[in-house]
């Protein structure tokens, strides 16, 4: 059974290695949890790769350069050097992937790199960005993030970004937004997604979503993709099991979200793991475990079919 994973941070790892003059090969570097070999082992059919420029460690004047470099790495190292990896330029490309191909989707996590220049956002669209998260955890010119104490919503610029996403069939990612910014996005976005967030009723963490937020995503037929990160599954946890993930899945199902559920692992951006799922190859184990609790049709939905049904035309 194939998998669509809506979030990883492999581009940041590859860029960091370049800056440190270390060579990492996307095909099989063990440091990369979503390398080609592991994606194949986990039967991942589509992987979303995030451009992420850490606003706490990269100077504002360098952020656009860093974002461009990560986009270049995506095209050169992930797509350009691997015949089996197919660049998803349009959403319809996912539907025509060959059985031995892996679709690669470019996304943006945090709009710091564009500053207040919407032409830079349009450039990222041209580079292939198909999903945009307005913030990471702090605030920026578009909105407040999930860990910004002020907890404000979208700015005028942030609203313009959402409207541009709508016009370009680009997803607007609500993971990492403050609660107020989440609701602003839900009012405006044609194509919202929670690419890597879990249920706050099960694990109290600012990166997780309250029930009313989950219900709003369900009502809008938006994907809700769970991060495979123990910190988001159990409070103050450094380890977790599939049983802990099942609590989040069951909870969203009780809210009516069975057809919204998927996975956005957050591999290459996390430091602890669910038992037996240390990287993309672990999806084989995960799906086998899920089939002990859910029907094959339900698991197929969680793995890939639900989001396939919800992508823009």
Description:
GO terms for molecular function: metallodipeptidase activity. This is Membrane dipeptidase (Peptidase family M19). It comes from Oceanobacillus oncorhynchi. By secondary structure, this protein is α/β, with parallel strands linked by helices. It has one domain (3-308): Metal-dependent hydrolases (TIM Barrel, Alpha-Beta Barrel), CATH 3.20.20. It has 12 helices and 9 strands. Strands 1, 2, 3, 4, 5, 6 and 7 form a 7-stranded parallel β-sheet that branches. Strands 8-9 form a two-stranded parallel ribbon. Helix 1 (10-19) crosses helix 3.
How are the SSEs ordered, and which strands pair?
Blueprint: E1 3-5, H1 10-19, H2 36-41, E2 44-51, H3 63-79, E3 85-87, H4 92-95, E4 102-109, H5 118-127, E5 129-133, H6 156-167, E6 171-173, H7 179-188, E7 192-193, H8 211-219, E8 224-226, H9 230-233, H10 242-254, E9 261-263, H11 283-290, H12 296-308
Parallel strand pairs: 1-2, 2-4, 3-4, 4-5, 5-6, 6-7, 8-9
Helix pairs in contact: 1-3
């Amino acid at each position: 059974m194939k998998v669509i994973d809506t979030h990883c941070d492999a581009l940041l790892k590859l860029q960091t290695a370049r800056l440190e003059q270390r060579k990492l090969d996307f095909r099989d570097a063990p440091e990369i949890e979503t390398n080609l070999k592991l994606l194949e082992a986990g039967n991942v059919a589509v992987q979303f790769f995030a451009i992420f420029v850490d606003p706490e460690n990269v100077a504002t004047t360098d952020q656009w350069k860093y974002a461009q470099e990560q986009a270049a790495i995506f095209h050169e190292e992930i797509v350009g050097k691997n015949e089996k990896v197919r660049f998803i330029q349009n959403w319809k490309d996912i539907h025509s992937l060959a059985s031995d191909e892996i679709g690669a989707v470019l996304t943006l996590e945090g709009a710091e790199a564009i500053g207040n220049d919407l032409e830079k956002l349009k450039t990222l669209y041209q580079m292939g960005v198909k999903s945009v998260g307005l913030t990471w955890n702090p605030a920026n010119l578009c909105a407040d993030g999930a860990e910004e104490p002020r907890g404000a919503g979208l700015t005028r610029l942030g609203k313009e970004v959402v409207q541009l996403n709508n016009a370009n069939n680009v997803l607007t990612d609500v993971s990492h937004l403050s609660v107020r910014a989440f609701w602003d996005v839900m009012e405006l976005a044609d194509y919202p997604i929670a690419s890597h967030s879990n249920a706050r009723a099960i694990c109290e963490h600012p990166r997780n979503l309250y029930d009313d937020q989950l219900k709003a995503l369900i009502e809008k037929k938006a994907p809700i993709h769970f991060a495979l990160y123990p910190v988001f599954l159990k409070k103050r946890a450094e380890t977790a099991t599939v049983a802990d993930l099942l609590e989040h899945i069951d909870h969203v199902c009780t809210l009516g979200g069975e057809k919204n559920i998927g996975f956005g692992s957050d591999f290459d951006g996390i430091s602890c793991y669910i038992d037996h799922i240390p990287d993309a190859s672990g999806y084989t184990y995960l799906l086998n475990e899920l089939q002990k609790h859910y029907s094959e049709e339900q698991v197929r939905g969680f793995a890939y079919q639900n989001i396939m049904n919800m992508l823009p035309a």
